[in-house]
Amino acid sequence: QVQLVESGGGLVQAGGSLRLSCAASGRTFSNYAMGWFRQAPGKEREFVAAISWRGDNTYHTDSVKGRFTVSRDDAKNTVYLQMNSLKPEDTAVYYCAGRVSAYSDRNYYTRRVEYAYWGQGTQVTVSS
């Protein structure tokens, strides 16, 4: 199985930027579809962005479209979430998630139940 470790969270002012990283180890990362989720205090964990194993298909939830970008670098076994124009409502613990994909699978995945592997999360706090 693969182990996932997020980093890059922190405290930033509204309008600022952060880049989250999710480093994978333990198994071949290149055939894993990856996703980012977030959970604010008192709320359910929600989908943020996803990328197919080939990296050719991505999807971002409406609330972050145009501000966040998911990408991957298989040579570094890392998936990224570039977050620009941050808002206080983006404050949450951010989690990366992974699932094995078949060679022919070009999908991204948006539901929590579709992912088998999760990181421990990294806190993002946006001050107003």
Summarize the structure.
This protein has strands spanning 3-7, 10-13, 18-25, 32-39, 46-51, 58-60, 68-73, 78-83, 92-100, 117-118, 122-127. The protein is mainly beta. The model has no long low-confidence stretch (mean pLDDT 95).
Strand content: over 45%
Instruction: Sketch the major β-sheet.
Output: 7 strands, mixed
Low-pLDDT segments, ≥5 res: none
**Structural class per helix/strand content?**
mainly beta
User: Number of helical runs?
Assistant: 0
Shape: globular
The percent range for helix content is under 10%
Terminal residue distance:
40 Å
- The overall pLDDT average reads 95
Query: What is the alpha-carbon Rg in Å?
Result: 14 Å
Report the order of strands and helices.
EEEEEEEEEEE
Strand tally is: 11
